[in-house]
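Final report, Chapter 2: Outcomes

The project's central promise was a pipeline that accepts a single protein chain and returns its three-dimensional structure in a standardized token representation, suitable for archiving and comparison. That pipeline is now operational. To close this chapter, we reproduce one record exactly as it appears in the project archive, with the input sequence first and the structure output second.
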Amino acid sequence: MSEFLHDRLKWEQRQRLILLEATVFWSGEISTASLVEFFGISRVQASKDLSLYQSLCPGNIFYDNHIKRYVVDEAFKPFFMEGSTGELLLVLKLQQQKDAKVMVALVGNLPSVEIVNPLGRQIDELLMRSVVRAIRFNLEIEITYQSMTSHELATLKVVPYTLVFDGLQWHLRAYSIKESVYRDFVLARIYQVTILGKAEEPPFLDGLWEAWVSVEIGPHPGLSEMHKSVVERDYGMVDGKCVTKVRAALLPYFLLCMRIAKDDSKRDPLLQKIVLLNRKELKGLIRASSGL
């Protein structure tokens, strides 16, 4: 019966139910007000959507009179989505690509596309749900983490703030209470998460996260003039360079994504092609944010 009703849903209604299910699955709760705000619908329509979802997916959510919200049930089974961490992370990536609008999914007659994707890091679904909730509700968590600089598992209490994608893998930006520093933790290397409760405000701001720096990229100096002009055209460079703003904390990730290493200007020009032009200006920030 549920599958029958699913097939008869209107497109816009199905989109609201997908959002509803994804929100309650990953954050643990959803309110009528959030549906009203996101879709610009009436409270009556939002209530109807919640009732419809409960009829399609009995046992997935229930109304909690204490917090006045619908919350996820332990027996939850995804109906409109896969419920995988890869699915959530793909959505998060698309949301941050501000130039790519959702309407592209509605365009027909598009050419065939083949995408080469790197192997993804495996991230536990339950762990990911705990991290998402901790970020959303400002919760302190205890993590069991395996760093590549140590042979032992570390147990740390942290206050998570945001997820970061560096082009290859996902990180958790968080304040480490024991170390009294802001750090990036590779999500796939977090083995266990325990929610401890409401977090206290860290004693200082994340300076590297709040600061923005200008990064200047140009053609490799060893290229011929003709090849330099090709590279300049590739990247839309003006006066032999392109300038972009990057959070200081994410500078090493940006350079890694652009395949710019410490020895960029010494590498084969035809392999390297681009170099960091203002390395001297950014040297201290690169060291501070990467630990190198």
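Archive annotation: Residues 100-107 have pLDDT under 50 and may be disordered.
This record, like all others produced under the grant, will remain available to the consortium after the project formally closes.
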